[in-house]
Amino acid sequence: CLIYTPCREQQFKLKQETEDFMVAEHDQDRIDSKPEPSESPDLEENTRIRNSDAVTVQEDSPSHESSHFCETCGKVFTRRANLKAHLRIHTGDKSYSCRLCGRSYFQRSDLTVHMRKHTGEKPFVCEVCGKGFIQSSDLTIHIRTHTGEKPFSCDICQTTFSHAHSLTHHMSTHTGEKPHSCDTCGKSYVQRSDLTVHMRIHTGERPYICKTCGKSFSRCNYLTDHMRIHTGEKRYSCGTCGKSFTKSCSLTLHVRTHTGEKPFSCSVCGKSFTTSSTLTLHVRTHTGEKPFACEICKKTFSQANSLTYHMRTHTGERPFTCQVCEKSFTQSSILKAHTRTHTGESLSLHMRCHVTV
């Protein structure tokens, strides 16, 4: 029986291809010194069979003697390929570029994941609800919405989270650390990904587009939430009153209307709030901070939506239209008040609907 044995150069190329491992997008900093278990048994089996086809690939030994050290930060890796991929973080080398949008990545695997955003491919499917995802790690996190699992716990206050990055973000409430700063306005963030999203406020970039109505968004999850407007899907239901919501965070906030929980307190006056964003806005009443400025007239505002409304005074935009008389308005709240002139509902009567006797 004859076995084909490739030349030394071919062996080296095969070794390099084998050592290219899949790493989720934005996870370059989390390349560990130990390989993670496969999330797909079928993929793991196919890889084992492929690597056994007539050619033996000698991988780096995981022993301490063959460890590879990063001379810049001291991080240790068991594979030379892992170290090589890690070094691109320090050098800034992003040699893998998307031919459609030009975005670049440190590793080929990250580009592969990115391309799925253009193709719409979602190979990882939830067996419970059928929802698809572009990365196995996204599916793993999604499954926790069904199981209720929250494996990440804060050592200080014991609050638990379903995402590691949620815990990281939460820890900043204890430490106050925000290492990633915007060069334009100086605003700081806990995570680099948050800064990336923030920069779109300055650049106006909205890369996530709804295929149904064409509306664009700065974040992928905003598009996901928006799509439920078209589908009518409300998968999160209140166990107390049965009201349903399109987002889990909306359900969390709603439940607090039953429990009366207000976990976010002002350190200046002690007033409590149901959401951290409401607390942030409240604190500005003490500090006088108005971080949102109009580029046309330089007027400043404490809230982003106030700036949005103000900009319409310059542009003349009136996106909210009455279906009865077709009169347009700059704000949805003004449209609602106007609609009552057609229905005959007085404002005082309307307000009584919100007051419990």
Automatic annotation (TrEMBL):
InterPro entries in the cross-refs: Znf_C2H2_sf, Znf_C2H2_type
Region (Disordered): 25-63
Family: Belongs to the krueppel C2H2-type zinc-finger protein family.
Cellular component annotations (GO), alphabetically ordered: nucleus
GO molecular function: DNA-binding transcription factor activity, RNA polymerase II-specific; RNA polymerase II cis-regulatory region sequence-specific DNA binding; zinc ion binding
Listed SMART domains: ZnF_C2H2 (SM00355)
UniProt record, GO biological process: negative regulation of transcription by RNA polymerase II
UniProt keyword Cell division, yes or no: no
Organism: Oryzias melastigma (Marine medaka)
Pfam families, A to Z: zf-C2H2 (PF00096)
Location in the cell: Nucleus
Protein name, entry field: Oocyte zinc finger protein XlCOF6.1-like
Keywords, ordered alphabetically: DNA-binding, Metal-binding, Nucleus, Repeat, Transcription, Transcription regulation, Zinc, Zinc-finger
Span of domain C2H2-type: 68-95, 96-123, 124-151, 152-179, 180-207, 208-235, 236-263, 264-291, 292-319, 320-347
Biased composition (Basic and acidic residues): 25-37
